[in-house]
């Protein structure tokens, strides 16, 4: 498979034109006009910004001979950008721009703003600098495929009958025929493994069990000292329903509240950028709910907590911060301006955001112990907890 990885890095486009080492079969349309493609699952796992960068790379390669400014787009003329837009015109609408990190948007997409439709350009800028903007452009759903939507089979068990000589040498023809579309009713994907999973990509099963023990203990007592509680049970008693994954659903507060409001008790898990194996998060037993923009309210609870985990040493290096005895009235902050927020809003005790840096410094509403300060989010998940 090393040859495949080398080919992936050297020429993304060629992988859309070859069936060697394929592990996914995609069928588009209905018989007798059904089209079939043999592709590589790693392509389907590309993040949106990776797809965009490869698309730009492919487009620039096709106009190298006609551009006046060369490789550096700072030297490009209006005609150069028009040439690139013409090449990518039918592909740009297929990119999920609203699922891209704001940092990546600024670094990799914004420099090519001239090739984007004017309305889309305006929508993207407003979307990334405000928390309440509703785009006019069509917002495609995140590229997620639930495991139960994928028919598991091996390529050897799947019979492919070539009914017509369909041209697959063009990246345009393949993408346009809905290889990446998750909405096409006539699109079927057969894979030898489930590419995507609704299991946590951040929390291990051991970490989930530890968090459950903390939750179970908080139900027995209104207050517990700030030290790691090692629960007696090793069996999970709650069902963890994944409501939201930022890398799937988008990082805006609007997307968070669309997926997570009015869902009851939740656990959030945040993967900190450049901090492998370190997870920060919290337990909200009352849930979040929608407010008018700009409003801030609080949900009182004595059972919520903030945690900091070290997946390499859960028992010795994890920290639990429960609500202080006399501070439970401001335990959970309800605001549409941010994603999940714990504690008194003005104290920045714990909130998650991509518009500005996230922040965690307990000690006001919650017990002291987690002092990360400002940090960047790599990804975060929200789970609804349902007691079995």
From TrEMBL:
<protein>
    <submittedName>
        <fullName>10804_t:CDS:1</fullName>
    </submittedName>
</protein>
<dbReference type="InterPro" id="IPR006571">
    <property type="entry name" value="TLDc_dom"/>
</dbReference>
<feature type="domain" description="TLDc">
    <location>
        <begin position="209"/>
        <end position="386"/>
    </location>
</feature>
<dbReference type="Pfam" id="PF07534">
    <property type="entry name" value="TLD"/>
</dbReference>
């Amino acid at each position: 498979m090393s040859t495949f990885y080398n080919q992936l890095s050297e020429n993304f486009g060629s992988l859309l034109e070859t069936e060697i080492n394929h592990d996914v079969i995609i069928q588009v349309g209905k018989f007798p006009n059904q089209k079939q493609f043999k592709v590589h699952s790693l392509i389907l796992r590309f993040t949106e910004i990776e797809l965009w960068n490869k698309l730009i790379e492919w487009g620039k390669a096709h106009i190298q001979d006609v551009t006046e400014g060369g490789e550096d787009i700072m030297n490009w003329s209006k005609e150069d950008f028009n040439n690139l837009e013409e090449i990518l015109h039918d592909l740009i609408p297929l990119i999920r721009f609203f699922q891209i990190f704001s940092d990546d948007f600024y670094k990799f997409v914004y420099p090519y703003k001239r090739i984007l439709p004017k309305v889309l350009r305006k929508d993207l800028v407003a979307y990334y600098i405000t928390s309440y903007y509703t785009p006019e452009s069509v917002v495609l759903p995140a590229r997620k495929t639930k495991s139960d939507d994928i028919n598991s089979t091996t390529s050897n068990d799947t019979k492919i009958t070539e009914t017509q000589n369909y041209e697959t040498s063009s990246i345009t023809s393949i993408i346009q025929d809905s290889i990446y579309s998750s909405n096409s009713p006539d699109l079927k994907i057969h894979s030898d493994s489930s590419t995507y999973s609704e299991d946590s990509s951040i929390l291990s099963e051991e970490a989930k069990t530890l968090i459950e023990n903390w939750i179970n203990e908080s139900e027995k007592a209104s207050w517990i000292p700030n030290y790691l509680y090692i629960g007696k049970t090793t069996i999970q008693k709650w069902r963890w329903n994944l409501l939201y994954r930022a890398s799937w659903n988008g990082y805006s507060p609007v997307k968070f509240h669309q997926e997570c409001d009015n869902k009851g008790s939740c656990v959030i898990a945040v993967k900190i950028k450049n901090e492998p194996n370190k997870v920060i998060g919290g337990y909200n037993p009352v849930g979040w709910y929608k407010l008018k923009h700009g409003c801030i309210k609080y949900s009182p609870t004595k059972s919520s907590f903030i945690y900091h985990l070290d997946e390499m040493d859960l028992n010795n290096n994890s920290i639990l911060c429960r609500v202080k005895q006399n501070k439970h009235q401001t335990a959970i902050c309800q605001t549409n301006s941010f994603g999940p927020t714990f504690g008194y809003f003005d104290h920045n005790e714990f909130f998650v955001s991509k518009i500005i840096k996230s922040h965690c410094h307990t000690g006001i509403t919650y017990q002291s112990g987690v002092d990360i300060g400002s940090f960047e989010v790599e990804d975060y998940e929200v789970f609804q907890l349902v007691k079995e």
